[in-house]
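Exercise: predict the fold of this chain.
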Amino acid sequence: MKKIMGLLLTTLLVMSLFVGCGSKEKDAEPTGGNDSNQSSSEKDQGNKGDNSADKPKVGVTIYKFDDNFMTYTRNAMTSAAEGNAELVMNDSQNNQSVQNDQVDVMINKGVKALVINLVDPGAAPTIADKAKAADIPLIFVNKEYPEGTDKIDYDKVWYVGTQSKESGDIQGKLVAEAWKAHPEWDRNGDGVMQYVMLMGEPGHPDAEARTKYSVEYIKDEGIRVEELEKQTGMWDATKGKELMTTWLGKEGDKIEMVLCNNDGMALGVVEALKADGYFSDGKYMPVVGVDAIPEALDLIQQDIMLGTVLNDPLNQGRVSIEMAINSAAGKDVLDGLDFSLDETKAVRIPYQPITKDNLDLAKKAYGME
């Protein structure tokens, strides 16, 4: 009997050990994929069902993140990439050397296409040389190489943005029509529009064109003008406020019109004017900008800003990313897009004049409706 009991206990002990070992082996199976010696091809196969493996990595640099307009453009890029591409986004902090280094790093990380909002438009050939050496498609957005994208020695480079002269013409037309409709704006009654001009970044094609062509259009409409002050506000609201405060102290009520190369500076101008008593008790100063950012649209709605020019950030951001995705996949760069390239290899996003009468157009462009 003792022998039988001993055999039974031995059998049970062996069975329990067998079951216990089997359980540990089964629990360990999922960690097998973490073997550091696993080949890259095996990893790719393991991720075959993961959609992210099929998304191209697109490198993006923005000249500076805190620019009002480029913030909206950047958000549009992120939306366009969602589910379609992995973005590697960089803030170049308004420093071309920083941007050049960022491009080098992104290329080394294996991006399949580049979307670059240049700090210095003149640096386009340098960036293109980097992309060409790596055989990576390149899309410049918003800031255009002054000599034309077609003059850059690389067949896989394109531009998405506007026609700079057009924004100046539209702003000039908006001002001319309003001036003729409001003779009371000529405070001293001399038949001359005394104006101040806040310019964007020196050397920027948009800033140069808006400064030149807005005034030329006004003069072509038969309106006599006198430039009281003109300085760069670097696209910045704070600098715009500082300049306008200085000019009000110097020129006072002689100023009859404020022309701004962008809405960011116009917002600062409005703050300076408010501090000087404008926009209350019937004291008014017409201010115009460019971009039609939501903050400016609110001021137009309140009859504070006269108007602006729609510079469509959603389409600039969306189209540049979709072109990058197409080119990374070896497709026609405009596949699926309702746009065409002009003779300079550029997709032109049209400008639109914006006043209180058509605010809905700008709101729609900014996704506000």
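Check your answer against the key: The domain at 165-310 is CATH 3.40.50.2300 (Rossmann fold).
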